[in-house]
Amino acid sequence: MGDHDRERRGGGKEALVEAFSAFGSDALRDVWLFDQRDHEELYLRDDVARKIADIDVPRFVDNERYGYVTRDTYSDLYYADYEYTVRGFDGFEQFRTFLADGEEKVGVFASFDCRDGGYDFGALDATVSEVVADYPIEAFEPG
Questions:
Q1: Cα–Cα dist 128/98, whole Å
Q2: From edge to edge, which strands make up the β-sheet containing 39-44?
Q3: Are 28 and 112 in contact (CB under 8 A)?
């Protein structure tokens, strides 16, 4: 792989983290990529790193992989396309979507501290789509 290809691969991940950071500012807690086999931490705030030090991160990511199944189910059952999922926890909200190019899909999830008024996750999804459009899907593969 040439240097230009390597830069584009790393550049896609950096651009993705920048998009999440611009959206959430200091409220951004973490950003993770995953596919069917692997996962990669792109950003982890120090206080969150301490909180998850004793949890089974691969098991947590495995739970997010169920999104591949539910995404396909939604495609089969609904008249609208799946875009993203948001989960609310005490203290934070988690956003998950899939970066797709045809049949190839890479999942991404990020969490944000709760805040009054919540977040415009539709705007975040649109921003993530813009970032993904600038890079080949391989630029986001975890590992």
A1: 10
A2: 39-44, 28-34, 104-113, 92-101, 84-89
A3: yes
How far is CA 64 from each of CA 54, 69, 73, 98, rounded to the nearest angstrom? 19, 10, 15, 11
Rounded mean pLDDT, 14-26:
97
Cα gap 86→16, rounded to integer Å? 18
The count of C-alpha atoms lying within 13 angstroms of the C-alpha of 52, restricted to the half-sphere facing its C-beta, is 16
The pTM of the full predicted model, rounded to 2 decimals, is 0.87
Closest C-alpha to 65, from 31, 98, 17: 98
Structural domains for the chain: 3-140 (3.30.450.30)
- 82 Cβ neighbours under 8 A, 6+ residues apart: 70, 71, 74, 75, 98
Which tokens is 138 given?
């391989």
- Output the pLDDT for position 68: 66
Per-residue pLDDT tens digits for 98-142: 997 667 789 999 999 999 999 999 999 999 999 999 999 999 999
- The answer to whether residue 3 scores a pLDDT higher than 50 is no
